[in-house]
Structures are given as C-alpha cells and as structure tokens.
Amino acid sequence: KAGVTQTPRYLIKTRGQQVTLSCSPISGHRSVSWYQQTPGQGLQFLFEYFSETQRNKGNFPGRFSGRQFSNSRSEMNVSTLELGDSALYLCASSLASRTGGRFNEQFFGPGTRLTVL
Amino acid sequence: GEDVEQSLFLSVREGDSSVINCTYTDSSSTYLYWYKQEPGAGLQLLTYIFSNMDMKQDQRLTVLLNKKDKHLSLRIADTQTGDSAIYFCAEDGYNDMRFGAGTRLTVKP
Q1: pLDDT tens digits, residue range A71-104?
Q2: N or C of chain A: less Cβ packing under 10 Å?
Q3: B-chain residues within 8 Å CB-CB of A90?
C-alpha cells in the first residue's frame, strides 16, 4: 500500500507570494491533517479535513487555508507569504477523524519544505 | 498556553538504555504517543499508551505514564545506531494533537 505522498518536496518562494501544497493520503483514508514544523515552535497543528469538511483548526492566521477533494486528496494554501512561514509542512492521513480522543493512528508524509526569501 | 515539554538532546552509547522524558499538558488526554522522525522523513508512530495504563512494553520499548505528574517517558533498551533520530511525544487533545519540540537522540558506537 502506498504511503502518504506530498508534493512538491521542496519549494522556494518570496515574501508576498502565495503557495499551494498537495497531500495524497493512503488509499481508503478519509482524514487528512496538516502540521507546520519549525525549529523554534516544533510541530503545530494547522487543520484537519474529513470527508471534504474542515473538522478542526489550529491557531494560525486566516492566510492559511485548506481544502479536501472527494478523493480525499488535500491541498493547503498560504497567501501573502512571510519569512516566518518557512517551515516543513507535514500532512498525516488516518482512516477516521481524530476528533474525540479515540485512538486513530496517523500516517505522516515526508513533508514539503517551504523556504520564503 | 502550556507546552508539551521534552529535553532537546540525549546522547548514549550503543547497547545502553535510552530514556526520553516528556511532560504533557492536558490531564484529560486519552492517548499519548511517541513518534520517531528520521532525517528527510515524516513522523512514524512508535508506540502509544492509553491514559488508564501506567506502563506499556513493546519489544525494546517501554512507556511509563504518571498521570498525577503528567509525565511520560520512553525507554529504549539496547539502543542501536539505527535508533538515532528525533523522538516526539504527543498528547491527543479533543481538538488537536500537541507535540513536544522533540528530543534528538544520538547513539555513539
């Protein structure tokens, strides 16, 4: 079974631009969560999508948005990029929504490394 | 708000035991997790513990949970060079997963 794939793996943008990252979950998984990983802040939860609906959202500004398609693939968009948006963006898929404290193993992709100049 | 806390670095000799500690924030977290991240890769779930358990053993891995102190630890027995990686603890809150900053484990031959 193929794992979680993320494209592109590396991206360089300049301040003010926007960027779209893509995540394809494991076949059959309907939940996709996005995380931002930086050396200073560690891993921070961005949002979770399940069945094309945003289920949960972390504490990030509105410049960060996402969506999920009917085939469970998800995209994340960041508009008006800032230097501080430079990070590794990870997506994770799971069978069910992780809401509610049930055990639900998340499988992580390798990430997209975004550099903002 | 409070953060999930871990020490940043740990260095051990091959064959020794490694103990990585974590203090989490939410006493109502149902599950607590340990993930491993190798260079250039995403996170891989190593093990997890349900909050009503004190201990869980899985081959070379032992997880200890002290709910009163909100303290979680991961012990790796007979540490190998292939165990060198960053280890993250995480708590499963109702709305989000909260991760520690990660402990970089270096195993010296």
Answers
A1: 999 999 999 999 999 999 999 999 988 766 677 7
A2: N
A3: 42-43
